[in-house]
Each structure stands twice: as structure tokens, then as C-alpha cells.
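Escalation from tier 1.

The customer reports that the assembly of two entities below gives different C-alpha cells on two consecutive runs. Tier 1 could not reproduce it. I'm attaching the input and our single run for tier 2 to review.
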Amino acid sequence: MTAIIVEQRPAPIAAVAAHGLAGTAPISGRTFADPDFDALLDSVRDHRIPGLLVAAIESGRLPATEQQLARANGAHEAALAADLLLERALASASRLLADSAIEHRALKGPAVARLAYAEIALRSFGDIDLLIDATRFADAVAVLTAGDRRVRQAEPRPGFVARFGKGVCVVGADTLELDLHRTLAEGPFGQTLQPADVLRDPAVTIDLGDTQVPVPDRSWLFLHACYHVALGSFLPRWSSLRDIAELVRRPDLDIDRIVGVAQRWRGRAVIKTALEVTASNLPAPLEGPLIDWATAYQPDAFEQRALRVYRSADRSYGAQVAAGLFALRGVRNRAAYLRAMLLPSRSYLRAHDTSYWRRLRRGVALVRQSRRG
Amino acid sequence: MHPEGRPEARDVRWAHKPSTIVRRTARALIAIGDAPDPVVLRGSAIVVWDALVPPRTIDDLVAMLEATFSENRSEIDSDVGTTLATLVAAGVVEPLPAPAQGP
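Tier 1 run:
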């Protein structure tokens, strides 16, 4: 596969992230000195994989002292406690949404941990992600902010997120974050994908205590994982790369459906990129028919131009938003999008410490840049 | 609850609270219920937790554990009471209503 050049990462955490996958080598032949081990532990915490670190030590692939194992266990238990707090919040949110007949699906952490990993405790997470029916997005925000939770950031103009945005983050006094997604990505790929497709398919349910929470099936989870890895942070978390590796080897992955949906969403290059990023970083072989397909696939002109705003070293949120303009269909949609971007509400400007004039100049520059693509 | 923190009614059956969510590792079981924070169980506390499926009275639990471990009954009885009190306080275990009496 074509390798995508990414920042060099320390080998130990890459090896921890790949622990347990077929074809992986021992992580280290020697015990780490304490400072090196603690640096690894910090990274493992940040990347939500303390469970894999403990598993690697207990299997003997990563030699460690008893004290180091105890510290790894402590980090793992702390992460699991945080996961449980988030899952309780997810169960509560899902009940509220279901009571209001708002279609939704829990994404990422809690869903992937149960549907992709051999043990739930191997996959930790830092927030909750919920895909919400776009036609009920404002209702969902109202339902979930009726208590002490608040939307963290203002939207450019009232109704913008429900029409064009990726979503909002809702946070409460407990500091737990619920990310409510209208769609699965910012920018051009976010405008061409159809999140209603995910909600239209029957949900799988996961049991969180006595609450059955709807989640997408593995094929949808894989597709979303690809969007997250290819279009999210330039350097995705190791847990996200591991998600791809776990899901892609599942025999029940419906490859024809995944590629068909991605074609309809104009996002086949997203799958290809996610697999390339995973393969070039995670030290474990990725194999299977989807890998063969991705190797052979040549992105079209739209995909190549759109990918640049996500995968270039100077990527920015503003550039993605500007590029999103050209992926929208219809003059009215484009006009409304442009108006919200260039003439946001005064409260939004205050929150972002800017002015109409500065925003206009930057907006024009970004739009020109994305046209040149 | 008993002043020392242990459930005192011997005929009450204790059960996992249905809303409880758990995680297991090789060494610990972490559970969250109604209390603000999760509770971490280790060693024999995990055995008590697992023994609550199906729901059991304290005497049932003690008899079951006595058959498994070589400790004497009074020590097991004390451990079970303390563990149950912890689990109840964490909101992950609850007493089941007594079965309806016949006419």
C-alpha cells in the first residue's frame, strides 16, 4: 500500500497499540527504565489504550517490574472508572432521546469496545459520541440541555449546526462530554455523506445496565472509524487505528455495502486513506479483501481535492469549512452557508474574539485557497 | 443497615441493581450504579459479587462461600456483611422485595 508520511512515533506505544493482533513481534527484549516506562504510560493514557499495555505486560511481550505493572493496572482501572461514568451518562442520554422519539446511535468507544474487541476493557474512551437524526437535532439539544448540561460553543448563526455543522459538544457540571453529531465529518466529506443512511438501517443494541442503547452495526462502525481516522486529527489516537485493525478483520464486515455507501457519499478515498494511515503506523499486517480493494482504488478529482484540506500538514478547521462550501448542493444552501460563515452572530464573534472584517478577509482567502486546491 | 454497616435482615435476598454497568480486569471488577463514583472490587469481594447471580440471602451467600473457601463461618459471615454494605452504599446491589405471602 502507498505509505502516507506521518510524524515518527515512538515504537513502544505503536507496539502496545498492536498488541494481540496477528503477526506482531515482541515489544521489547528488556524492562524499561522507570522514566521511560512512565513516559509510555502517559502516552498510553492519552491514547486510551491502558488495557492493551496491561495485556502486553501480562502476556510477557513487554517485560516490566512489579511496580511498573502496578502503575499500569492503576492507570487501567482509572480509565475504566472514567469509561463507566461516561457510559452511565450515555445510558441516561439515550433514555431521554428515546423518550422523545429522537432517532440516535451511539458511536465509537462504547460501541466499538463491545462489537470489535475481544474484551471490552481493552478499549477506553474520553467522551461520548451520539449521531442524532438531523431533522430532530435542535430537539435533541433541548432535551439533553434541560438539566445542568450546556452547549459548550456557540454556533455561527441559529440553526447552522442542524443544517450544515458536524455537531455540538454538550457538557455538564460533571465535566463529562457528550458530542452530538449531525454528521460524521467537517468540511467537504461531511457535506457529501448522508448520516440518515446510518439511522435508516436497523440498530444493534448494547446493554448499559438495564438500558439498551442503539449503535450502528460493525460495517457502519468501520465506515465511521475510517472517517474519523482519515479526516479527524492529522495524527489520530492509537485507539482509533486499533479500531480500524479490529474491525477490518471481522468476517461479517459487509464490504460491498461499505464500498457502495462510500461511493454514494463520494468518500471511497476516505476508506483508502484510513487503511493507509493505519497500515503505515500500526506495526501489524492488515489483510483481507478490503485491503486489496483499497490498494487498487484511485481517488477521483473531487476526492483528491477534498482530501488535501484534511491531510495536508497546514490543515485547518477554517480551510475545511471553506472547502465544504463547494461540496454543498444548491445555490440556496451555498448562500446560507456562506452567510453564516462570513456574517455570524455578534455573540459568536465575541466568543471567537474576532470582527466581521477580519472574518471576511480570512473567509475570502480560505475560499480562494480551497478553489485552487 | 446495621450500625457497623452490614445488612442486618437475614431473610432478604440481595441482587445486582439492573442499572449497574461493570468492567472486569484480571485483578478487579469495577462497577457503577447510583452513587456518584464507581466502586472497585478485588479478591473475595468479586466472589461475593459473582455469587449474587441469582439473588441470594446472606445465609445462602455464606453457605456457598463456606463450601468454596476454608475460612471459618464467622469470618466469612463478617466479610460478606461488609462487602454487601459496600455494594449497597455504591448503589450496585439492592434488596429484592419479599415474595407475596399466600392467603
